[in-house]
Amino acid sequence: MPRPRRRLASTCIGTVTAGLLATGAALAAPEDEPRGSDIAMGAYLDYGPPGVARIPYLSRWLGGKEIRVGHTYLPGDQWAGIEGNVPFLADWAEWRRAEDDRMFVLNVPMQARNEGRVPDWHVARLIRAGAQGQYDRHFTKLAERLVALGVPDTVVVLGWEMNGTTYTHRCGPDPENWKAYWKRVVNAMRAVPGQRFKFDFAPNRGTDAIGWTKCYPGDDVVDVIGMDSYDQAPGRTFEDQVTQPYGLQAHVDFAKAHGKEISYPEWGLFRNGDNPEYVRRMLKWIEQHKPLYHTITDYCPHGVWQCKQNPESSRVFREALTPRVPVEPTPPVVPTPVVPTPVVPTPVLPTPVVPTPQIPTPQIPTPQVPTPQVPTPPVPAPTPTPEASDPPVVPSTGTGTSPAPTPPPEPAPEPKPDPEVSVPPVFPPAPTPEVTVPASPSPLVPAPVPVPVPVPVPSPAPKPPAPEPTANSTQWCVPLNFGEWLNKLVGKQTVCIKLDWVKNSGFWPF
């Protein structure tokens, strides 16, 4: 019984002493709202390609703040994963190579079955095997893989939270061999050509299973001293988290004493729910102590972006890290004196009116084209055809008495055109040879007319002549004479005109 009291008393004295030493630093934290800074910041969003893909969206949510830290974990179930034989490692390497100021943080387990709830006695045996170099080859392969992917400057968080009870790579069962094992791992990876790794020693905040300083392997194999700090015990308030043994202040002081940079690979909400005060104070602490980098664990219950159950903490986080663009004050507007400009009247000069000459337009007479008058050919009066009983009239030879003269015919009325009468086309008949009739010795006796012998002509058969009209007929026919030569060619032609001799028509001549 006395021993627990003395242990409790010594613990209290140590706590008070540490609190007094840290009072100045704790109280020196600025109380105003934190502002976005140039400290490399990131968030654990997912271990594989989704984590890479979500980075630009987180940046947009933070008003365009640059996310410079990509953070993921190698699986610790098998040695193949610890050797880096996982496809998503290439995605993170590609993201890192895209910008020179980016940082790739990789948590690396130190044992297979790293979350297998292995008992302490078994953990102690594994630690001793590691200290003897039995696992060096796995870490050599990992270093070669990272160099081949083009990320030889990876920040390796090796054996994280070694002062706790969760992982198989914990330090508590055998701290001395554990430190020897750490050294073998670092030396094996540094032996790979081309590497420029930084090794981050990152315990849990507080004592946990063992004080983390008892696991520190030495300045020669540590580049950064980190700390994972969630809103949980030990410590009920943020002040408690700062002043407790192995707390935030002890972490800063230890790193300073060893000349090392600090980091916060994991931080976020946990046991106390949506706690905007914790987020505000943690961001102030980070801003004050300027770590190499910090990454919030952004999934429930720890996160502020992907976890919607912490709205107030989310608001504080966003307001603190959204870049503030300085607005330059606008200088006062000095009114410019307006000097009135005298109005000088412009003299109006009369414009002389120049008369426009009127050019007369010549009148061009329109020529009158006379309409040609087509003369209508006169239609000759029809010649009365002698009766069939009358003898033929023989022209006188000048030796005998002349026959009685034929009375002149009545004047024929003008023919009335008949629209129904059409003149058929005239086809020239075959030429008929002329026959000379000898003079008769007696004018009273007609001489016999010799019958002409037809001469065959190779031409189409002549059309039958038009029937001769009877006396007082309505049809008048007039022979046409085309001359001697043409008559031979086309033959004798006749033009016949039909006239209306109906009584009371106005054309009845008798």
The fraction of residues in strands falls at: 5-15%
Residue ranges: pLDDT <50 for 5 or more in a row?
Answer: 1-34, 379-453
Q: Count the beta strands.
A: 11
- Based on CA atoms alone, the radius of gyration comes out at 69 Å
Order of helices and strands: HEHEHHEHHEHEEEHHEHEHEHE
Mean pLDDT: 77
> Class of the domain at 12-321, according to the CATH hierarchy?
Alpha Beta
Question: Main β-sheet: number of strands, strand sense, barrel status?
Answer: 9 strands, parallel
CATH architecture of the domain at 12-321: Alpha-Beta Barrel
Question: What is the quaternary state of this protein?
Answer: single chain
The dominant shape is: elongated
Helical stretch tally? 12
Q: Quick one: CATH superfamily of the domain at 12-321?
A: Glycosidases
Percent helix range: 25-40%
Structural class: alpha/beta
Q: What is the topology?
A:
Elements: H1 2-27, E1 40-44, H2 49-61, E2 69-73, H3 79-82, H4 88-97, E3 103-108, H5 120-131, H6 136-148, E4 155-158, H7 175-190, E5 198-201, E6 224-226, E7 229-230, H8 238-243, H9 248-257, E8 261-268, H10 276-289, E9 293-297, H11 311-321, E10 475-480, H12 484-490, E11 493-498
Parallel strand pairs: 1-9, 2-3, 3-4, 4-5, 5-6, 6-8, 7-8, 8-9
Antiparallel strand pairs: 10-11
Condensed summary:
It is built from twelve helices and eleven strands. It has 510 residues and is α/β, with parallel strands linked by helices.
Architecture overview:
- This protein has 510 residues and is of the alpha/beta class.
- Among the domains are: 12-321, TIM Barrel (Alpha-Beta Barrel); 466-510, no CATH class.
- Helix content is 28%, strand content 11%.
- The protein has 12 helices and 11 strands.
- The protein has helices at 2-27, 49-61, 79-82, 88-97, 120-131, 136-148, 175-190, 238-243, 248-257, 276-289, 311-321, 484-490, and strands at 40-44, 69-73, 103-108, 155-158, 198-201, 224-226, 229-230, 261-268, 293-297, 475-480, 493-498.
- The strands form 2 sheets. Strands 1, 2, 3, 4, 5, 6, 7, 8 and 9 form a 9-stranded parallel sheet that branches. Strands 10-11 form a two-stranded antiparallel ribbon.
- Helix 10 (276-289) links the parallel strand 8 (261-268) and strand 9 (293-297).
- It is elongated, with a radius of gyration of 69 Å.
